[in-house]
Design goal:
With 327 residues, this protein is of the alpha/beta class. The protein has a domain of 219 residues: NAD(P)-binding Rossmann-like Domain (Rossmann fold, 3-Layer(aba) Sandwich), CATH 3.40.50. The chain contains eleven helices and 13 strands. It has a seven-stranded parallel beta sheet, with helices on both faces. The longest helix is centred in the N-terminal third of the chain and has 21 residues. Bound molecules: nicotinamide-adenine-dinucleotide. The site of nicotinamide-adenine-dinucleotide has 28 residues, from helix 1, helix 4 and strand 5.
Length: 327
């Protein structure tokens, strides 16, 4: 299936959204970006210079969402209140943005007969011990008193909404991204550990590893995440399909800290801080997070092109160039 010409990207000034815009523009699409610049930045999309339409707006504003989507033929919904730090600090904002914002986007897509890909997350699986995570696995979460699980739950509700709209005729696909990193990551790095370590290493400050650092993640280079998203949008899969998007290479956070520090030739120490110190009491982490990506491979023909070495080779020079300069 060919992707239609006129495409709207919510969250297009953010990490994944701006790289989607790059790839879609290169393929000749007309792009509109809808963003409130809460974690995205004008600098991320400055290079488009009049080649994309930019609408500053909030996905919680139903009228603005509807007006922006009208006239478009496909939507990539990437706007969200993201990250674990964000949800621990401001759970209400995260829940309301992700649930009501996504409902506004899905309803408008349904009304205007737009297909849509929605960005979901590996956080969906919670602390499931069944490694690797497959799309139909059970979710294993802790108590509702642990704020961290509100992010996972808000995204799960988005998925339920998407699947329910799919039954009503909406062409929708759900993508669960696993730890995406790359140029244009916010240096504050809310929940984005590659950005956080790079910023600390460049400032010569200690790289603070949370917990014992033996917890693992699989890191996905943003250009791969964007390419897979476009493959999903062009595939003929039935409405409501879910795909893991990520690399299968599992890395302990201790090793990530060492690699980033050494590649940036930084003299920063690597130190460990308890979760309680960082996030307060009642925080739970996920020890291992590894996707099974067989479905994306079989159905979408997706294989990650960038291993960590190649992804960091593109990312860290960008961090060196940009961190400390952009807000
Ligand atoms: N980067 C990752 O590791 C990762 C992992 C799993 C899932 N995801 C999901 O992918 C999507 C994109 O994430 P990202 O990494 O590009 O994050 P990002 O923060 O770089 O991008 C999100 C964008 O959405 C915008 N936004 C936030 N709230 C908004 C609102 N209320 N109205 C309009 N715009 C708003 C932000 O300004 C930003 O530009 C999100 O749905 C996120 O949950 C990302």
């Amino acid at each position: 299936m060919n992707l239609p010409r006129r495409i709207l990207i919510t969250g297009g000034a953010g990490l994944i959204g701006s790289h989607l815009a790059d790839q879609l523009l290169a393929a000749g699409h007309e792009i509109t970006i809808f963003d409130n610049y809460s974690t995205g930045r004008a600098a991320n999309i400055g290079h488009f210079e009049g080649r994309v339409r930019i609408v500053k707006g909030d996905i919680l504003d139903k009228g603005a969402v509807d007006a922006a989507i009208e006239g478009n033929e496909y939507v990539f919904h990437m706007a969200a209140a993201v990250g674990v730090a964000n949800v621990v600090g401001n759970p209400l904002n995260v829940i309301l943005t992700n649930v009501y914002g996504t409902e506004n986007v899905l309803a408008a897509c349904h009304r205007h007969k737009c297909g849509v890909v929605i960005g979901s997350t590996s956080e969906i699986y919670g602390k499931s011990p069944h490694i690797p995570f497959s799309e139909d696995d059970d979710r294993v979460l802790g108590s509702t008193r642990v704020n961290r699980w509100a992010y996972s739950t808000s995204k799960a509700l988005d998925e339920h909404l998407a699947i329910a709209y799919g039954r009503e005729g909406l062409r929708v696909t759900i993508l669960r991204y696993f730890n995406v990193y790359g140029p244009r990551m916010h240096e504050r790095g809310d929940g984005q550990v590659v950005a956080r370590f790079a910023a600390l290493a460049l400032r010569g400050e200690p790289l603070t590893v949370h917990g014992d650092g033996k917890q693992t993640r699989c890191f996905t280079f943003v250009e791969d995440a964007a390419r897979c998203s476009i493959l999903a949008a062009t595939s003929d899969t039935p409405a409501g399909e879910v795909f893991n998007v990520g690399s299968e290479h599992e890395l302990p956070i201790n090793e990530l800290a060492t690699v980033i520090r050494d590649r940036l030739e930084s003299k920063s120490e690597i130190v460990h801080v308890s979760y309680e110190e960082v996030y307060g009491k009642d925080f739970e982490d996920t020890r291992r997070r590894v996707p099974n990506v067989q479905k994306a491979r079989d159905v979408l023909g997706f294989n990650a092109s960038f291993d960590l070495d190649a992804g960091l080779a593109r990312t860290l020079p960008w961090c060196r160039e940009n961190y400390g300069k952009v807000g």
